Amino acid sequence: MSLPFMNNWSGKLTVLLLAGLVFSQFAWAQETDNTLASSEKPASEEKPSGQVLDKIIAKVDNYIILESDLQKAYLEAISQAQQGMETPTRCQIFESLLINKLMMAKSEIDSVIVSEAEVIIQTDQRFSMVLQQFGGDEETLIEAYGKTADQLKSEIQDAVKEQMVVQKMQGVITEGLEVSPNDVRQFYGSIPNDSLPFFSAEVTVGQIVKKPEVSQAEKDKVVEELLSIKQRILDGDADFASMATQYSEDPASAAQGGDLGFFKRGELAPEYEATVYELKPGEISDPVETMFGFHMIQLLERRGNTFNSRHILRIPTPSENDIEKAERYLDSLRQLIVEEKITFAKAAKEYSDDRETSDNGGFFTDPGTGSNKLTLRTLEDPVLYFTLDSMEVGTLTQPIRYDDVDPRTGRSEPGVRLLFYKERFPAHRANLSDDYEKLKAAARRKKEEEILSNWFVLAKEEVFIDIDPQYDRCEALKN
């Protein structure tokens, strides 16, 4: 018996688990293309010359799957498997890609759509994160991938849109699904004792984060810098686009000379939009502050309720004094916790700046199960791993500085936090008492697979599907 929490590649509906995987690391890197010729393939795929000619291996209505799509997804899956996941077969990857395309085709029939604004925002964020990995240097990024920023961004946008549509379709198909305690017990009871998984040691860890508040003095420096750039543009010593490319800290738009493209009212930060609607075409604003930093904006064009603008973004950074102030704040909060004048969970909910953990009393959760129990590997933070390794269970650290990555921009920012090592659970065989949340998540995935399997049987009859005979062996269209 294959358990959902033991083998994420079981069943033909692995699209649910693969949706984020296929697009997470941008496997279209040049090194992937070079690997294409030498990777493991069926005998019929081998080319005497060592070169692989790309071709269409499946078509679902107007959506196609290329040989290279499969190879890249397969290599990405292998990369993930090296981090603890079981390696899928090429047929399982092919089936998942096929179901992705089926969901895309069905989304058009069923009018399940995602807004272009959502796609653009997600694309910009992901491009920024990729660019950040290259130190914000676009030339280095282009050299690594062998493609222009526009080409890379276009590929990211296509992948993002597909991922968002697939996730939305999944939500529509499984809407109303509930898992009761009795469902969990029945699921657990259906697993033979000798098939119960053996879980590694787990921990429960919490944090209270304080993000240093940037002082007014640091903000004033950024404002003066932007005003100086504006004056250079007005004096004719420089043009807006070149200044944006050189100075803007929004890497996604800086590559385009600061151009953001057209947006509708309500799609950008309120302060940004309020400024845009006060400008005439060609006019440049004074610096305006939003949650992202300070923008200097130029309106390019307005069409009805949409507008095209460009900006130069500068993000003020905390000074050493700002960081020390955050440390003193957390030190005082720590003293209250130690003296039991407030619980850790209450302090985290009320005072932590990290919303992802504060809503859960400060505790990290396993994204797959929602459980507070997680392996150190799940934390994916080597600094956190080694910090916990030197701590005793039940202890609370002094304020610790760390690098916090802003998910909106991919930019690393200084942060300060307290860590609470609450509990440690020894390695053990799965049981209802200790692993209820994991079993519940597994039971839910099993139900989802059943629902989606039934959906697949009906949906495949509503679209045109053509599969290259080479992949008939995968039996992807069989239930």
UniProtKB/TrEMBL annotation:
Isomerase as UniProt keyword: yes
SUPFAM superfamilies registered for this protein in UniProt: FKBP-like (SSF54534), Triger factor/SurA peptide-binding domain-like (SSF109998)
Record-linked InterPro entries: OMP_Chaperone_SurA, PPIase_dom_sf, PPIase_PpiC, Trigger_fact/SurA_dom_sf
Signal peptide feature range: 1-29
All residue ranges annotated as the PpiC domain in the record: 200-301, 304-403
GO molecular function, one term: peptidyl-prolyl cis-trans isomerase activity
Keywords: Isomerase, Rotamase, Signal
Top-level taxon in the UniProt lineage: Bacteria
Pfam families assigned: Rotamase
EC number annotated for this UniProt entry: 5.2.1.8
PANTHER family: CHAPERONE SURA
Name of the protein described by the UniProt record: Peptidylprolyl isomerase
Source organism per UniProt: Cyclobacterium jeungdonense
